[in-house]
Amino acid sequence: MKLWLLILAVGAFTILLSCVAEKPEESPKITTTVQSPNEDSELALLMRFMYDDMYRVKSELEAGKRASLEHDPKEMFTAEPTDSAQVSTESYKAFGQAYIAAYNTFHQAEQANLKEHFEVLVHSCMTCHQTTCPGPMRRIQNLYFDN
Ligand code: HEC
């Protein structure tokens, strides 16, 4: 019985860490037969891909190129999260829809306005993170052009 409590406690702590702080390099490991609570969720992997995708496009825009994003933002609503409580709120839905709208606007924008629309997109990553998952905000900040 005590072992189960420990597993639960470590699991809850890890979920908290994934959003409150940057991921530590070495996450606590426990060896049990149950599925590891440290496994990255589908949503976390999607978000990392979104970050890399945005970073690539930022560099291309800085070089004066026309670039398009490869991630599918609708997957934010289907990918399995670390903690379902984070994505079942009305604000997650609203911010997710706002992000998708900004994503579509970016792809329809004229070359001259691409950078401006890109910053709107970064801002809508931030807005959702402020309420649902503040940990990665410092990292997302890197996506603004003056950083
Ligand atoms: C609608 C809300 C929402 C939007 C919009 C959003 N995120 Fe997230 N993001 C989350 C949530 C919730 C998590 C936690 C996922 C989990 O742990 O399963 C997360 C996690 C992350 C992580 C951490 C992943 C990890 O390694 O654990 C990064 C980095 C990230 N988001 C970057 C971004 C970037 C960049 C954008 C915009 C291109 C963005 N997010 C847009 C809600 C959002």
Shape: elongated
H/I helix tally: 6
What characterizes the major β-sheet?
A: none
List segments where confidence is low: pLDDT < 50 over at least 5 consecutive residues: 31-35
Give the beta-strand count.
0
Would you kindly provide a written description of the structure presented here, covering whatever features stand out?
This protein has 147 residues and is mostly helical. It has two domains: 1-39, no CATH class; 42-143, no CATH class. The chain has six helices and no strands. The protein has helices at residues 2-20, 42-62, 84-87, 90-108, 114-132, 137-140. α2 packs antiparallel against α5. The longest helix is centred in the middle third of the chain and has 21 residues, at 42-62. Heme C is lined by residues 18-19, 23, 41, 43-44, 47-48, 50-51, 54, 76, 81-82, 86-87, 92, 95-96, 99, 124-125, 128-129, 132-133, 136, 139-140. Heme C (HEC) binds at residues 18-19, 23, 41, 43-44, 47-48, 50-51, 54, 76, 81-82, 86-87, 92, 95-96, 99, 124-125, 128-129, 132-133, 136, 139-140.
Could you give a quick summary of the protein structure above?
By secondary structure, the protein is an all-alpha fold. The chain has helices spanning 2-20, 42-62, 84-87, 90-108, 114-132, 137-140. Residues 18-19, 23, 41, 43-44, 47-48, 50-51, 54, 76, 81-82, 86-87, 92, 95-96, 99, 124-125, 128-129, 132-133, 136, 139-140 line the site of heme C.
